[in-house]
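Most newcomers find our protein records easier to grasp once they have seen one. Nothing more is needed to start thinking about how sequence determines fold. Here is such a record, shown just as it appears in the course material:
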Amino acid sequence: MTDPSVVQEPLAPPACALAIGAHPDDIEFGAGATLAQWAAAGTDIHLLVLTDGSKGTWNTKDDLGELVRVRQEEARAAATALGNGTVHFAGFVDGELESDHTTRLEVCRTIRTVRPNIVLGHDPWQRYRLHPDHRHAGWSTIDGLVAARDPHFFPGVGGEHHRPDTLLLFEADEPNYLEPIKVGIDAKIEALLCHRSQWRSTMGIDPDAPDVELQRQSFAERVVRTACQAGDGEPAESFRILTT
């Protein structure tokens, strides 16, 4: 029997999309190819990065203020690679994100300012998730969207209330929608590789190694392989789709 919750038809590229991630590079991992191919079709894409990325190093001697600056530059370069996207930085401290009044207000403000047709974010219901920022980013996305759509939540913040049509949750615990990404997967890989500060810790690439190009290629192949597993042979990104 077919699961009635599964959405079979690909979504039409929206006029505007807003993706919300806990850290720089989270959005690219979760929905980069989807955003890239929508951008190629004319979608205005925006990324809201909730934390400053200041925990994103294994080197205890790193200057964390400089790391924040670098990660913002990388995020902007990645958004350009996805399709001239705009990045918004909320600036909450990495590792200390909360799904509280302040974070909800920031999400609400951004949704009302950007006025997206589709919002994308972390699935807060994913079981056994270790990183608290991802959980809190997911709840803040959902709670901020509800606030943005109703006029009596944070009245006037960010402009008039705005109700997006659709919410897509990446890293979904129970996905019910696949976005085919043949068009966008190369841009996803390019965008991820813009996050050079994360090569060693997140992508398994040693930038100082003599075989760094082979490691880059191996990482790209892993991204494609993961996408093909999600799409049962054809590259896809999986989501939980909710109407708002």
